[in-house]
Amino acid sequence: MKSKFFYIYCSIIFFTIQLSSCSSFIAIERNDFSCSDTAFVKYIKAEDIPYTQGNKVTMLDGAQEKFDSLFNDIRKAEHHIHLEYFNFRNDSINELLLTLLAQKAKEGVEVRALFDAFGNLSNNQPLKNIEDIRATGIQIEKFDPFCFPWINHAFSRDHRKIVIIDGKVAYTGGINVADYYLEGLEGIGEWRDIHSKIEGAAVNVLQQIFLDMWNKETKQDIGGEAYLPEQPKKGNAEVAVVDRCPHKTPKRMRQAYANAIHSAKDSIILVNPYFMPMPIIKKALEKAIDDSVKVTIILSEKGDIPMIPDGVWRVGYQLMKRGAEVYMFTNGFNHAKAMCIDGKYCTVGSANMNSRSLRYDYETNIFVFGEEDAEELYNLLKKDVGKSYPLTKDIYKQRGWWRRFCGWLISLITPLC
Fold this sequence. Notes:
- β2 (about 80-85), α4 (about 90-105) and β3 form a beta-alpha-beta unit.
- α2 runs antiparallel to α9 (about 250-265) and α9 (about 250-265) runs parallel beside α10 (about 280-290).
- The protein has helices at about 5-15, 35-45, 65-75, 90-105, 115-120, 130-135, 180-185, 200-220, 250-265, 280-290, 310-320, 355-360, 370-385, 395, 400-415; strands spanning about 50-60, 80-85, 110-115, 140-145, 160-165, 170-175, 190, 195-200, 235-245, 265-270, 295-300, 325-330, 330-335, 340, 345-350, 365-370, 390.
- The protein starts with a helix and ends with a helix.
- By secondary structure, the chain is α/β, with parallel strands linked by helices.
- The protein has a single domain, classed as Endonuclease, Chain A (2-Layer Sandwich), CATH 3.30.870.
């Protein structure tokens, strides 16, 4: 796909000019007597990470569920619709979304859409008709337009996927606006992902994240009670919103992932694309395995960026040899970023477990506390295990020396820490 080689080029630049020491901050020890969720909540509060109660969270199983739910809520909008995406691909689902947003704008609803300029360039059908979109009443802005060859613009991209409607309901997860989330890609197959819908106090946290970015980019001052209303109790879920803002909270997401893994007493099940985790994450997983925690990892046979799958296979094989159960997803490419800990709490969001996400980009994940919500996500992940096969030494060796060499090579040029 267009610009995927450029993405690798940027990673090589990062490796060459911006190596830094790896954070090793770990607040949670597995040998304490706290339950995993109690220990992680204590960590969340100590770090002043926004933590709310009285939420209702719905896990959305794939793009069809996400867009059906999202479009239904957009139709009900009365005051505002805010969208922040890595990209809006110029295809049929985007056309349907823009048509609906234009209709809401005509009805007097404020519509603001923000997309990452690099993310737009990185897909093979980028948005080009920005002024035509604005003419429909939609306020749409690019985040940090990319100016080649000034490589500083390749850093700190907005990789979030957030929608807020009337300050009452929010969406976040791994799904951008693109047909291939619904239809798959030729040569890859299904493009699998997971999203979430949130109602309750956590909506205000996600709204503030959007407003901060919007106001920064447009120099406007949007805010106030109409956008951040008092939130009634909607359910029993407790939600922490972990947001990575490169110049404010640069280590927050990787430390949250690592501490969640360290909190586990019994089991971890996770899925994550482009899985070449930073050392702090990989070491946390290795320690969990060594401490007899059952670690289940879902990876993908295929991918959309050249050579990256070879690196993913290599990391998966290393963790499998150590004792993890590693499954290779065969139905296409699993783009979800989700994890369950001990069946007690879970996370879903935009953050990959690689250096790109955890050292450079703007990312947002929700951590949801409650066994009912954790079970809902756990069941989605177990369904993906059912579409996968276990990685073994024989299967890895069958890839041949060249693919294994490519895996070793890509692991070298991936930015450290």
